[in-house]
Amino acid sequence: MKTLAAVLTALVAADFGAAASRYKRNALLWSAIALLLATAYVFALVAIALLLAQYFSPVTAAVGVALGLVVAALILVSVIAGLNARDRRLAEERRRRSLAKTNLALMAGTSLLRRQPLIALGTAIALGALLGLGTGRRRRERP
């Protein structure tokens, strides 16, 4: 049982590690998006103020900067969407592979059980010993 618990613990830790790194990445990118949108808002306000003060030349530069920042924020949003879609596809592919391996093992086991039941019994005992199920209880020494 110790071996099985160690394997399950490692699997859970790996999943949490991947999720944590994905959340960190998304938080960093969303903060960059928020910064770019706040800067775009400030430049839009400056552009409106300049538009009221003088009608054209400095305004086009400020509006251009604001539009450039908005475009940069939209590009980052699309990058996040692409990365999240890729992560979902990879997780689905891992799940499909795991299910296929499980189904293949079950099919092999049932065909082995039908053809040669004594070999199947020996295999089951060997697997039980390998997983630590046959360790038994340890006796305590009495003082």
Structural commentary:
With 143 residues, the chain is an all-alpha fold. The protein has helices at 2-53, 57-115, 117-130. The longest helix is centred in the middle third of the chain and has 59 residues, at 57-115. It is rod-shaped and about 95 Å long. The two termini are 28 Å apart. The mean pLDDT is 77.
Brief account:
The protein has 143 residues and is an all-alpha fold. It has helices spanning 2-53, 57-115, 117-130. It is rod-shaped, with a radius of gyration of 30 Å.
Characteristic terms for this protein:
single chain; 143 residues; mainly alpha; 3 helices; rod-shaped
Question: What structural class do you assign from the helix and strand content?
Answer: mainly alpha
How can the largest sheet be summarized? none
Low-confidence stretches: none
Element-level helix/strand string = HHH
Strand content: under 5%
In whole angstroms, how far apart are the ends? 28 Å
Mean pLDDT: 77
Discrete helix count: 3
CA radius of gyration is 30 Å
Estimate the global geometry from the Cα principal axes: rod-shaped
Tally the beta strands: 0
The helix fraction, in percent, is over 70%
